[in-house]
Amino acid sequence: MPARWANAHEHLDDAVSLALCRAxxxxxxxxxxxxxxxxxxxxxxxxxxxxxxDTTAQQVRDLAAGTRQFDAGVRxxxxxxx
Length: 82
Fold this sequence. Notes:
With 82 residues, the protein is mostly helical. 56% of the residues lie in helices and 0% in strands.
C-alpha cells in the first residue's frame, strides 16, 4: 500500500473522520492479506469512539468488514439533475 494512502489519516482533525479513514485502511490491509496491520488499524479506529459514540463505532466495524459503503458526500454530476 502506498505510504501516502497509509498516512492520509494524519491530516484529519476530527475523531469521526479519523476513525472512518482508519477503518478504510483496515479494510485495505485485510484485502491485501495483511491481517495484522488490519487488526491494528481497526483497533486504532475504534479507540476514540467506543463507549462515546456507539453509532460511529458500528459504522467503523461495518466499514472495516466491508458490509457498509463509504459515503464521503461526493456527488456524481452525471446522476444529478441540472
